[in-house]
## 1
Amino acid sequence: MILFCPYPNFAASAYVMSAKDLFDSRMACVRMLRCFYPDNHYNRYREAPIGRAWKGYQASLYFYLQILENEWEKRQYKDQFVLPKTFEDCEKWRFTNECLHVIEQPPWLGWEELHSSHRARLLWSDYQWYRMFGWKEKPFPTVVWPSPSVSPGDHIVRGSLVALVVLVRKKAVTALLDGVEIKIPQEDIRRRVWTRAISVQL
């Protein structure tokens, strides 16, 4: 399943996508939203890296879907679909920039290594389309998604901060940040205040 975030700004991500990738990302949003409902046949995605990345941030994911759909309509493409009716509680955020100050955004949004890997994957999938944006990445077939579980030797991120995990205990993780040891509560990692970067094949 493919859902691209080449930029931390959802509108910018939608704007640069080719028709195929825009369509695939719209469908991926719908499948991801459905997978969080019990007994849904898409629930196999729930424990996949992409599912763990968006878990708990369904309102943000729904907002992204609306932006993708809006971009689809602007280009006057056909084969439009109706947004899921099971998320009426998110309708108050429809097409408003103000929602970004209210809806909790995934903590990995804005992490450049993730967005860079998505740009590299897009270049790999359709170089002729994406080369016009002047991206510096080399085409590459894998993307990075975060993971809440960590092991010694992993790099974990929070915004622009990157720390190296050196010790994992039941209640806290010891990590090196700019050469200084810091303690990070395991609860922060479970809540995805800090996340681990993993590279996965789409």
## 2
Amino acid sequence: MLAYNKQQQQAIYSLSIYATNQRAVLLPKLIAGAAVPTLRNLTRTTPRNLRALALFLRNSTELQFSTLVDISVTDKLLARGRFSVIYHFLSTSNNQRYSLQLFAKETTTIPSLAAAFVCGQRLFASASWLEREVWDMYGCYFAEHGDLRRILTDYGFTGHPLRKDFPLTGFTELVYNDAEGRVVSEAVELAQEFRVFHL
């Protein structure tokens, strides 16, 4: 078990305490809920309030979460939204991590943290690559992203491979064609009928 001194504990729990105890006064409508598990702080928000809360995390003199480390997505098919999108932040000055979670449907537009402000400065420069990866794998659309294109799959690829409704075999496969002397893309032919299981 990790042991923290009093000052480190205050740095870890400051946003969660701030969010849960004083949100009605200080951060109205930005936070949908907060949780403080043993080793991870998590705050739930909505896509509409994501940029404001991320700006608060970055610019707060106490918190100083200046680095966006990762964006993780889970395809859950929940009533609140199909995708659980979690932003992972790092404060190098406090040596702490924090997570912001939001739920998005297939048609939900998520505001980009890579979009430039009026002055031309980005909120988090690392978000550009991470948002492209999420869009490529899951199809979550990020508004005002300047370069939202495929990053891990081919440009002609159809669909988003990490969605639960994407077939395991895919739609096309690359094979070497002896007649043409090159690699070509062909439609996948299954040996048996594709079956749909209703759970």
## 3
Amino acid sequence: MGEWIKQRSGFVGAGFTPAFKYFCKNSLIVFERGRKARAYVFALLVFITPVLAHHSTARYDLTKTVVVQGTVTEVIWQNPHVILVMNDTHGKEQAFEAPSPTYIVNSGWTKDTIKVGDKVTVKASPGKNGQLPMYLITLTLANGKEYSPKNPDRGP
């Protein structure tokens, strides 16, 4: 029972009918349960929403693809995303975002799949605003081996 009802027990018991006492007591309990439920829902939304928003592909134009060839200059293999940076054939720096290392390892990649200096061809979806990074769809090494961050066990 809530502190409010305990502190004001004189109010509930002072000359009121049993039905009114019951109503007051149970209304307060329902209110407290509702408050807890609202707090749980609020906490869930606060903690889950950024996770869902962060792992969204909404910033990319998935209806378009570009193919970029070049030389890898940096591979950042860390959570939350693997980032591949390369200089394209025109000398312009390009960056590509892939899912987390855990996810792409399950797709057959290793930390040594791509190394600085590798000549690669990347198929990617550009950002809707035209800014980097692009969303990596496939990566093809000079030997023709193609990698995709999509895990075959998880589907497309």
